């Protein structure tokens, strides 16, 4: 099945695939950033908010978490038509969905901070907002690290689903390569190659984030 | 190469919850399932003579379309004051546009469920030995199991499906198997998708079960050994029954995950829910109706699944284990 | 008649030698208590007898059978040696009754109905007939430990090992467990007990072995060891125990 000629074909198109990998990484970063910017306040609203704001956040969260990402992307592309750019559409789709998950990571982390911390902060004269801002949030952020790490991997892998809206990221480029006429024999080689790139990316970022969370961990099991 | 999956992250995927005390949500689900079951019975089980035509909706779309049209006209004549009426007209128009596609979506939903259930069930069969090997196996077995889970979890599901469908001669082999695609036996692509979801889900389930096994107190196996059970029997009768209960929240995650990601089977030509929605949308240009409908279908399936898993968790809970976990 | 013979047992964890040549013997029906400061090797000694821990050198014989012979089936050996743990280790997913039937059914191959009957008898003997269907999480520590004893007894062992059976219990629950153990001793069970429970040792023990840093420093009947300890280490330790309210 694996043939030298097909490997040569993969090597010839290495730059083409590498550009795809760059798009994949770029999309991952923009999506996570959008997810963070929306998800962090959303998580806080779910914990500390009340009334209609909290309702809206939690219902949109359920919708975003309960719908396949491919459907979300196509809705954004064909129904809402937020942008002609597949990259922008994919960023918004993955970003919104990631926000829905990141809000849960924050929510859990905020809730896991001991209530005594809030009381102690209030006791030294901080306002509720100051206590959240200076005492609860810094601890919650550290506790969110493992969740983020998980989210990072998920978003990275799900960038491949932008295939559905024709974004020329890594997987799409792999698909385009072997569907060229006369190149269908190279399909396995192409996918082994791009899978390897994905693996290196997920594995590498995971180990890097492990290091990072060790570095920022507070002694005495704060990160566990 | 440690793959400690953070417990916080495991929690995250379970949070597609619905308040069961909201009667409208429950009523909607009951109506959805009632209609689905009726549709499947009609389309799959009743002989042609007795059945309602399988490509025709139970409810005609025309009245909705007419109502939408006349309401829209009235709304327009009222000017600004007609805005609420216009919204109702829009909704009716949506219903009219959605109705003709319902039979196809019901058929797609059937395949979505088949893919999900088969993936999680076969995946479980692989996941138990994988996780037991990870926790109790020797060096070689541990390494093998770890490599498998890391490799699967480190690459996109869509890439895995492409490898199986385009890269390996699986399709040729399955196509030769007698009976494939006949009657209730799914077609070739469905089998490839099931294999893909099985292999993928096994890796994730193995991680859930592994961390659940590790949360079973080591003293449990010691006690089992002390009354004369062999290691295998101790794992089988003492550790697994407890560990699998701890793994239930993980399964809720996995079930929800598979329902949503089974949509990727569309890219290897499986005519599941998303495939049906997209192909009708492409034919009719009714993107809004079809994709919103698809989203609603998935949402209904996902919410049903998490309700079901909550029920399973409550049923299997015993004091001290499962349900609301103590300690 | 000798039931248990322990001869020159050595055991190390890495660089640390935990047992430095321990020897003693027990006759059938004997009740012996192992005492000594923490880290002296008591629990390790106990676990070497049913091979939950493996010895480095020396030998152990149970009823004439060499425990460490390659021919000896460790699972069969363990049926003859009941063990009661400090933290109970009841099977958390099984009721009190099922905790006992599991071994009967899966190890001894007793049919379901008979296993249930026998298990119920054993529960009654430890005074827990009414708790048969309770899960461990629903039982007090003292009740859990009594189920633990019943579970071990159900296998009809020749020897019972108790690894600090009362030290995880609240003080007011110690009595009920000690009573069950004393009752067991009176009925002639051979028991090797790691415990600092002076009351039990004084009233039920035939011999007390005092262990210190991996060696038996002194052995003898309770009155001798408690009244006229020969070794300074023994008297120091016993004084400490008594002043701690034991």
From TrEMBL, chain A:
- The keyword RNA-binding is annotated on this UniProt entry: no
Q: Any idea where the ABC transmembrane type-1 domain is?
A: 21-202
UniProt superkingdom: Archaea
Question: Where is this gene product found?
Answer: Cell membrane
Membrane topology recorded in Swiss-Prot or TrEMBL: Multi-pass membrane protein
The coiled-coil regions, if any, are none
What is a biological process (GO) this protein takes part in? amino acid transport
From the UniProt record, which GO molecular function terms apply?
transmembrane transporter activity
Please provide an example of a Pfam family that matches this protein in its UniProt record.
BPD_transp_1
GO terms under cellular component = ATP-binding cassette (ABC) transporter complex
Entry keyword set: Amino-acid transport, Cell membrane, Membrane, Transmembrane, Transmembrane helix, Transport
Question: Membrane-crossing residues?
Answer: 16-41, 62-82, 186-204
Checking InterPro entries in the record gives: AA_ABC_transptr_permease_3TM (IPR010065), ArtM/GltK/GlnP/TcyL/YhdX-like (IPR043429), MetI-like (IPR000515), MetI-like_sf (IPR035906)
Which family would the database say this protein is a member of? Belongs to the binding-protein-dependent transport system permease family.
Query: How is this protein named in the record?
Result: Amino acid ABC transporter permease
Q: Which organism is it from?
A: Haloarcula pellucida
Organism ancestry: Archaea, Methanobacteriati, Methanobacteriota, Stenosarchaea group, Halobacteria
TrEMBL record, chain B:
User: Which PROSITE patterns did the record assign?
Assistant: ABC_TM1
**Protein location:** Cell membrane
Q: Which GO terms describe its cellular component?
A: ATP-binding cassette (ABC) transporter complex
Q: Where is the ABC transmembrane type-1 domain?
A: 109-309
Q: Which InterPro entries match?
A: AA_ABC_transptr_permease_3TM (IPR010065), ArtM/GltK/GlnP/TcyL/YhdX-like (IPR043429), MetI-like (IPR000515), MetI-like_sf (IPR035906)
Q: Which Gene3D superfamilies match?
A: MetI-like
Q: Where primarily located?
A: membrane
Question: What processes does the entry annotate via GO biological process terms?
Answer: amino acid transport
How does it sit in the bilayer? Answer: Multi-pass membrane protein
The UniProt keyword set, sorted, is: Amino-acid transport, Cell membrane, Membrane, Transmembrane, Transmembrane helix, Transport
Annotated TM spans: 109-136, 157-174, 180-200, 290-309
Q: Name one GO molecular function term.
A: transmembrane transporter activity
Any coiled-coil regions, as ranges: none
Pfam families cross-referenced by the UniProt entry: BPD_transp_1 (PF00528)
Q: What does the sequence similarity comment in the record state about its family?
A: Belongs to the binding-protein-dependent transport system permease family.
Its name, as the record gives it, is ABC transmembrane type-1 domain-containing protein
Q: What is the lineage of its organism?
A: Archaea, Methanobacteriati, Methanobacteriota, Stenosarchaea group, Halobacteria
From TrEMBL, chain C:
* Coiled coil, from the record: none
Similarity section: Belongs to the ABC transporter superfamily.
Q: What residue spans carry the Polar residues bias annotation?
A: 236-246
Does the keyword Cell membrane belong to this entry? yes
Keywords, alphabetical? Amino-acid transport, ATP-binding, Cell membrane, Membrane, Nucleotide-binding, Transport
Cellular component terms (Gene Ontology) = plasma membrane
Main localisation: membrane
Q: Which domain of life is it from?
A: Archaea
Q: Where in the cell is it found?
A: Cell membrane
Species per Swiss-Prot/TrEMBL record: Haloarcula pellucida
Does the keyword Transcription feature in the UniProt annotation?
A: no
Residues forming the ABC transporter domain are 4-238
MF terms (GO), sorted A to Z: ABC-type amino acid transporter activity; ATP binding; ATP hydrolysis activity
| Family annotation (Pfam families) | ABC_tran
Q: What is this protein called?
A: Peptide ABC transporter ATP-binding protein
């Amino acid at each position: 099945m694996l043939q030298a000629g097909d490997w040569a074909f993969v090597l010839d198109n290495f730059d083409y695939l590498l550009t795809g990998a760059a798009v994949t990484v770029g999309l991952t970063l923009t999506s996570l950033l959008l997810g963070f910017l929306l998800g962090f306040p959303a998580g806080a609203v779910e914990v500390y908010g009340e009334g209609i704001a909290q309702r809206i956040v939690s219902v949109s969260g359920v919708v975003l978490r309960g719908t396949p990402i491919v459907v979300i992307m196509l809705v954004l592309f064909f129904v809402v038509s937020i942008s002609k750019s597949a990259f922008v559409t994919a960023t918004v789709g993955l970003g919104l969905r990631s926000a829905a998950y990141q809000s849960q990571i924050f929510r859990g982390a905020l809730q896991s901070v001991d209530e005594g911390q809030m009381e102690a902060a209030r006791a030294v004269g901080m306002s509720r907002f100051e206590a959240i801002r200076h005492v609860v949030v810094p601890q919650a952020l550290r506790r969110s690290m493992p969740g983020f790490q998980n989210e990072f991997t998920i978003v990275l892998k799900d960038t491949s689903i932008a295939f559905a809206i024709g974004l020329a990221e890594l997987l799409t480029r792999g698909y385009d390569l072997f569907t060229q006429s006369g190149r269908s024999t190279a399909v396995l080689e192409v996918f082994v190659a791009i899978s390897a790139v994905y693996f290196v990316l997920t594995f590498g970022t995971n180990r890097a984030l492990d290091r990072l969370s060790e570095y920022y961990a507070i002694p005495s099991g704060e990160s566990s | 190469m440690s793959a400690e999956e953070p417990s916080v992250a495991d929690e995250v995927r379970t949070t597609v919850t619905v308040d069961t005390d909201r009667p409208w949500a429950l009523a909607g689900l009951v109506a959805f399932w009632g209609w689905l079951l009726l549709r499947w019975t009609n389309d799959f089980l009743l002989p042609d003579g007795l059945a309602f035509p399988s490509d025709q909706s139970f409810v005609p779309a025309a009245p909705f379309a007419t109502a939408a049209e006349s309401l829209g006209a009235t709304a327009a004549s009222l000017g600004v004051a007609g805005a609420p009426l216009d919204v109702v007209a829009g909704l009716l128009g949506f219903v009219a546009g959605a109705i003709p596609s319902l039979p196809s979506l019901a058929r797609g939903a059937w395949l979505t469920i088949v893919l999900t259930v088969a993936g999680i069930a076969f995946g479980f069969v692989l996941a138990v030995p994988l996780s037991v090997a990870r926790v109790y196996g020797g060096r070689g077995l541990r390494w093998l199991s770890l490599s498998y889970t890391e490799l699967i979890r480190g690459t996109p599901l869509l890439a895995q499906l492409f490898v199986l469908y385009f890269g390996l001669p699986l399709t040729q082999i399955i196509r030769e198997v007698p009976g494939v695609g006949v009657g209730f036996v799914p077609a070739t692509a469905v089998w490839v998708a099931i294999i893909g979801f099985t292999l993928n889900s096994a890796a994730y389930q193995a991680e859930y079960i592994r961390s659940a096994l590790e949360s079973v107190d080591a003293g449990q196996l010691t006690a089992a050994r002390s009354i004369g059970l062999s290691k295998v029997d101790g794992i089988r009768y003492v550790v697994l029954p407890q560990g699998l209960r701890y793994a239930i929240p993980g399964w809720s995650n996995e079930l929800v995950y598979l329902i949503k990601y089974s949509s990727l089977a569309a890219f290897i030509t499986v005519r599941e829910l998303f495939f049906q929605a997209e192909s009708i949308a492409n034919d009719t240009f009714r993107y809004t109706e079809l994709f919103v409908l698809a989203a609603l279908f998935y949402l209904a399936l996902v919410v049903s699944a998490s309700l079901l898993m909550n029920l399973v968790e409550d049923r299997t809970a015993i004091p001290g284990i499962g349900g609301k976990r103590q300690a | 008649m000798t039931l248990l013979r322990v001869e020159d047992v050595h055991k190390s964890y890495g660089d640390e030698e935990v047992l430095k040549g321990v020897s003693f013997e027990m006759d059938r029906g004997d009740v012996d208590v192992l005492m000594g400061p923490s880290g002296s090797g008591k629990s390790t000694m106990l676990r070497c007898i049913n091979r939950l821990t493996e010895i480095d050198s020396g030998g152990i014989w149970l009823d004439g059978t060499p425990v460490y012979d390659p021919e000896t089936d460790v699972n069969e050996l363990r049926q003859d040696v009941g063990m009661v743990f400090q933290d109970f280790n009841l099977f958390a997913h099984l009721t009190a009754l099922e905790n006992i039937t599991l071994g009967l059914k899966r190890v001894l191959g007793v049919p379901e109905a008979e296993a249930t009957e026998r298990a119920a008898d054993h529960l009654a003997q430890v005074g827990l007939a009414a708790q048969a269907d309770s899960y461990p999480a629903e039982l007090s520590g003292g009740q859990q430990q009594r189920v633990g004893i019943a579970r071990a007894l159900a296998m009809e062992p020749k020897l019972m090992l108790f690894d600090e059976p009362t030290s995880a219990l609240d003080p007011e629950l110690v009595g009920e467990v000690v009573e069950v153990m004393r009752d067991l001793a009176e009925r002639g069970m051979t028991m090797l007990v790691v415990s600092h429970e002076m009351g039990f040792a004084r009233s039920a023990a035939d011999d007390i072995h005092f262990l210190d840093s991996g060696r038996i420093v002194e052995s003898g009947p309770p009155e001798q060891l408690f009244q006229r300890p020969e070794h300074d280490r023994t008297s120091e330790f016993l004084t400490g125990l008594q002043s701690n309210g034991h």
